[in-house]
Amino acid sequence: MVTIKQIAELCGVSRGTVDRVLNKRGNVKPEKEKLIVEMAKKLNYRPNPAGKALAARKKHPVVGVLIASEGVHFFDDMLTTMHHAAERFSSYGMEVIWRSMKGFDAAEQCRIIDELKDKISGLIINPVNDQQVIDKINECVDNGMFVVTINNDVESSRRHCYVGSDYLQGGRTAGALLKMICPTTLKAGVLLGSLNMLGHNQRLEGFQEVMHNHPDFTLLGVAETADDDLQAYEAARSLIADNPEINAIFVVSSGGYGAARAIQAVGREDITIVAFDTIPSTIDMMKKGLIKAALYQHPHQQGRRAMQLMFDYLVNGSLPEKNAYIMRNEIRILENVAD
Questions:
Q1: What DSSP letter does each residue of 256-291 carry, written as one string?
Q2: 287 class by beta-carbon count within 10 Å (0-12 exposed, 13-18 middle, 19+ buried)
Q3: What single DSSP character describes residue 88?
Q4: pLDDT band at 307 (very low <50, low <70, confident <90, very high)
Q5: Rounded distance, CA 285 to CA 278, Å?
Q6: Are residues 13 and 115 located together in one domain of the fold?
Q7: The pLDDT of residue 297 is above 60
Q8: Integer Cα distance of 64 and 86 in angstroms
Q9: Pick from 136, 222, 301, 328: most CB atoms within 10 A?
Q10: Same domain, residue pair 178 and 267
Q11: Are residues 182 and 247 in the same domain?
């Protein structure tokens, strides 16, 4: 019987590349894909799913998923897709242990990692950018665990790869949008989840980079909201009360709904909001004209890709081909938000 290993050797590629082509999982250059398909046909390759599943079950791969998802509806779509993938991969014996947390407490995240580390061989984590967490991830990797960061990264760690959006580019895009939408004089406040999240800092950096060349821009303040709508509501109200001249709010992460409710409550619908994530509450506020635009970061693709990378490594032994799998930031306005 012809094996994937033999096809890989004859084509001069990795077994993981052959597996992706034969199982139609993409991310292979067209010329390599054509070569592999032709070689498999020539050798009359026939997959043996029962054998593959049996071999995988003997390994008993266990994945830990740790996401700061409590109260953050952006993660609903991501986790739905991850659960579907976990069900699909369960026939190969892959088990998933699910853990969630609220907010960005580094000590709590480390505590959960410690709880999981002796039970799992792979970890998908939405990490807090704190040295305690970085050290814990490095310890896991040093002990042979496969680690994928999702939606947020800690670049100084030794994680195997990152799956998520380009936060710096997202901040630049939001800044450019506000420059296009708002009056010539732009006086803006910024709401972000936590300064302990690398991505939130990168979006703020990208936003400020674009605004640096604005002829008449004032940053009125930056407030942390823990990605909580109630805290976002209070922070937005405080910004407005302290700065009556404000005419824009950039919501770096979750919290667009809270900010929109705040401008509605104080009768300041003249304030322009640009936010992230097209969750139902954001769409509702877009329909009311309170949020002018949102940036979409493909939560389904993020979840699907992270689980696929885990499966490829733990079941097939294939390391990621990239250090980072970046999802494109897409601009959504009312007219295309349902697309």
A1: HHHHHHHHHHTT-TTSEEEEE---HHHHHHHHTTS-
A2: exposed
A3: H
A4: very high
A5: 10
A6: no
A7: yes
A8: 11
A9: 136
A10: yes
A11: yes
What does the pLDDT read at residue 201? 95
CA nearest to 275, candidates 240, 232, 326, 231 = 232
DSSP summary character for residue 148 = E
Confidence at residue 59, expressed as pLDDT on a 0 to 100 scale? 61
Q: Give per-residue pLDDT as tens, 47-76.
A: 665 455 445 455 689 999 999 999 999 999
What is the distance between the alpha carbons of residues 272 and 254, in angstroms, rounded to a whole number?
Answer: 16
Helices (H) and strands (E) in the chain, counts: 13, 12
Check which CATH number belongs to the domain holding 35 and give it. Answer: 1.10.260.40
- 275 and 249 in one domain? yes
Residues in the chain: 339
Residues 18 and 136 in one domain: no
Predicted local distance difference test score (pLDDT) of residue 24: 66
CA distance 246 to 249: 8
Q: Which domain holds residue 29?
A: 4-47
Establish if 238 belongs to a structural domain.
yes
339 within domain boundaries: no
Residue 154 CA: distances (Å) to CA of 127, 158, 163, 209: 7, 9, 11, 21
- Per-residue pLDDT of 233-278, as tens digits, reads 999 999 999 999 999 999 999 879 999 999 999 999 999 999 999 9
Same domain, 173 and 286: yes
| Domain total of the chain | 3
- Answer whether residue 292 is part of any domain: yes
Whether the predicted model's global pTM rises above the 0.85 cut:
no
Nearest of 126, 98, 103 to residue 255 by alpha carbon: 103
What is the pLDDT at residue 54?
Answer: 46
Tokens representing 204 are 């703020």
Amino acid code (one letter) for 81: T
Is residue 67 a contact partner of residue 224, using CB atoms and an 8 Å limit? Answer: no
Overall average pLDDT of the 112-123 stretch: 97
